[in-house]
């Protein structure tokens, strides 16, 4: 699959690492072009591209920026009409211990409003960058979960296929408005992982039937 990753921070670089290993054709872009070049160079097969028009030709776009930069980054990436956009953002406060949105809307819904032609799917927002970089398999048959929420079935299927290709277990989390639940889950993960000192392996693995 041809995938463009927007963002070259911890999550963006982890995506590039795992997606190239899984055999996808990966492009990466960022506000800091030099950082995108470094990430691409560290992952043979990936390529750094300019931010303008970065989404052209991609089967899916992974939005790995901060929430505040998300809409602008997508608008600059080219024509997103009919394009699957995987939103991994969380609307975090400056200290990472709270959310700036909730209850009546979500980061995902606000981003969807900003790029109405895209097929937006919330996914990976509950996964720590360290877990993504190191791999989803915790051993003993335990895999980290990726929740996918979207009003587009095609977007869910695409995000799910990408998640499974890099080793995650996929959970259908319903329509896009359910991002209002997923973003607080991410906030809880961050508190448990960092605020309570339990580490990034606290990433969700839900109890399910074998």
TrEMBL record:
Keywords: Oxidoreductase. The keyword Nucleotide-binding does not apply. Gene3D superfamilies: NAD(P)-binding Rossmann-like Domain (3.40.50.720). Residues 2-91 form the Pyrroline-5-carboxylate reductase catalytic N-terminal domain. It comes from the Bacteria. One of its GO terms (molecular function) is oxidoreductase activity. InterPro entries: NAD(P)-bd_dom_sf, P5C_Rdtase_cat_N, STEAP_metalloreductase. PANTHER family: DUDULIN-RELATED (PTHR14239), REDUCTASE (PTHR14239:SF10). This is NAD(P)-binding domain-containing protein. It comes from Ramlibacter monticola.
